[in-house]
Design a protein that fits this description.
The chain is mainly alpha-helical and about 210 residues long. It has helices at about 10-35, 40-45, 50-55, 60-75, 75-85, 90-110, 110-120, 125-150, 160-170, 175-185, 190-205. The N and C termini lie far apart (about 75 Å).
């Protein structure tokens, strides 16, 4: 006789809730003390679970931070923006779409992006790999923006394709948001408007 494994929905929901509790408490501790100033034992205590539960539910500290970063990497804002960009006919609108999508990600995850990764970078190789992957994916999105501008014959004659990608990174990359919003205290809408306007002036022939 074959024994069929039974997965209880209640057990699955409980495991997901435990994982979420661990991650939310870990994030709070990381932001308060920095990544290196927090132990697995302290995360377990804050989440009111046993240390082995932390390991079985999420993993070690790099795994915990990686799990916290996944919602940023998988956010639909950029994917949706690129889909709209591919059919966009207005060059300024194309740039505004990617600026808005980028702004939404930074605004939604600002505590983690600015409070931890920028101000107190963890320096974990595993985390660096995740951030590098995110940067590469964003660079691909900016490449799609540039290619759409090329297709619309919208780039200035003195701005080659490769330079256009670099300029988009300069105006819309993570460092711009960290500087303007984080270090200088700009509201997100002001930073988005400035980045869009500046990128248009630098890239578009009719600007």
């Amino acid at each position: 006789m074959t024994t069929r494994k039974y997965d209880s929905p209640r057990r699955t929901n409980s495991a997901a809730a435990t994982r979420e509790t661990i991650l939310s408490n870990a994030q709070a501790l990381f932001l308060a003390r920095g990544y290196t100033g927090v132990t697995i034992g302290e995360i377990a205590e804050a989440a009111t679970v046993a240390v082995p539960t932390v390991y079985s539910s999420v993993g070690n500290k790099p795994s915990i931070l990686t799990a916290l970063l996944e919602p940023i990497l998988n956010a639909p804002s950029i994917t949706d923006a690129v889909a709209a960009i591919e059919v966009g006919e207005d060059p300024r609108g194309v740039i505004d779409l990617i600026a808005k999508g980028t702004r939404l990600i930074h605004e939604r995850h600002w505590d983690l992006l600015y409070g931890l990764l920028y101000r107190k970078p963890p320096g974990e190789p595993a985390v660096k790999e995740v951030l590098d992957r995110g940067a590469e994916e964003y660079l691909q999105a900016l490449t799609s923006v540039t290619d759409r501008l090329v297709a619309l014959d919208a780039l200035r004659v003195d701005v080659p394709r490769a330079e256009a990608i670099d300029l988009l990174w300069f105006y819309l990359g993570p460092q711009a948001w960290m500087t303007l919003v984080g270090d200088r205290g700009w509201p997100f809408d002001r930073a988005q408007n400035w980045a869009t306007r500046s990128a248009c002036q630098a890239l578009l022939k009719d600007s």
